[in-house]
């Protein structure tokens, strides 16, 4: 009788234990919590001194509208794309370097900024920025480059197997959410720098772009970067 009773108690304990754990397991299975744009806005505008998080607005401007060409416009980008980039400024588990590096392969300035951010922080900020309007877009700066830039954007460079940029970034430069970024209204010098980083292998988070940029010379890159900036 004692053995039967002990088995009943043990079985009951296991059931209770599993019942207590099930909400946790269910939460893990559900994936990350839904992003919170309000929390993202607060972190973007104010940062978090206690955690060493610098306010994103100090570099990228109000609501993601930058006034400094070295710091890209972030408003109106898809939240999936922004989140992906923030993640890739950090080294992956077990890796020594991040996929996105800066000039000459040195750590990107963003590595230090993204370092203190949690996964939730990155998702929240990304969602907030995706909901903002690009109110101060950059534009083309060199009329002499228009024809060359337009040709590359619309038709690519067939003789070097460079595809049309419009195929992925859309004819008006709006991009394809979750896949390819908005380039219309982005600073031409920033686009140019990124293409060169892809070409040099320092920005290794887009293998397809590395291959494409490798087939482009400096004149190609400058022309298409300037053209893309003027798209709306």
From TrEMBL:
InterPro entries for the chain: Cyt_c-like_dom, Cyt_c-like_dom_sf, Cytochrome_c4-like, Cytochrome_c_Oxidase_Subunit
Signal peptide: 1-26
Record carries keyword Transport: yes
Any coiled-coil regions, as ranges: none
UniProt keyword list: Electron transport, Heme, Iron, Metal-binding, Periplasm, Signal, Transport
Main location: periplasm
Origin species: Sheuella amnicola
Modification after translation (UniProt): Binds 2 heme c groups covalently per subunit.
UniProt cross-references to Pfam families, sorted A to Z: Cytochrom_C
Positions bound to heme c 1: 56, 59-60, 110
Compartment(s) where it occurs, according to its Swiss-Prot or TrEMBL record: Periplasm
Lineage top rank: taxon: Bacteria
Sequence ranges assigned to domain Cytochrome c in this UniProt record: 35-133, 144-232
Protein name as catalogued: Cytochrome c4
Molecular functions (GO terms): electron transfer activity; heme binding; iron ion binding
CC terms in the record's Gene Ontology section: periplasmic space
The keyword Signal belongs to this UniProt entry's keyword annotation: yes
Residues that hold heme c 2 according to the record: 165, 168-169, 209
């Amino acid at each position: 009788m004692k053995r039967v009773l002990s088995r009943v108690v043990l079985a009951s304990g296991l059931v209770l234990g599993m019942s207590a754990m099930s909400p946790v397991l269910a939460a893990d299975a559900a994936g990350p919590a839904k992003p919170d744009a309000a929390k993202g806005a607060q972190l973007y505008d104010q940062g978090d001194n206690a955690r060493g998080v610098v306010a994103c607005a100090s570099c990228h401007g109000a609501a993601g509208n930058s006034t400094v060409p070295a710091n890209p416009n972030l408003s109106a980008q898809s939240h999936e794309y922004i989140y992906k980039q923030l993640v890739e400024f950090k080294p992956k588990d077990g890796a020594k370097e991040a996929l996105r590096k800066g000039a000459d392969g040195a750590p990107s300035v963003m590595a230090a900024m993204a370092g203190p951010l949690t996964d939730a922080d990155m998702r929240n900020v990304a969602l907030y920025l995706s909901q903002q309007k690009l109110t101060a877009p950059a534009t083309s700066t060199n009329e002499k480059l228009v024809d060359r830039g337009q040709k590359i954007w619309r038709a690519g460079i067939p003789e070097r197997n460079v595809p049309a940029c419009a195929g992925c970034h859309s004819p008006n430069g709006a991009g394809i959410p979750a896949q390819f970024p908005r380039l219309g209204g982005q600073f031409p010098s920033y686009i140019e720098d990124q293409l060169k980083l892809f070409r040099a292998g320092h920005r290794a988070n887009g293998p397809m772009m590395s291959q494409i940029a490798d087939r482009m010379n400096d004149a190609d890159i400058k022309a298409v970067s300037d053209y893309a900036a003027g798209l709306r």
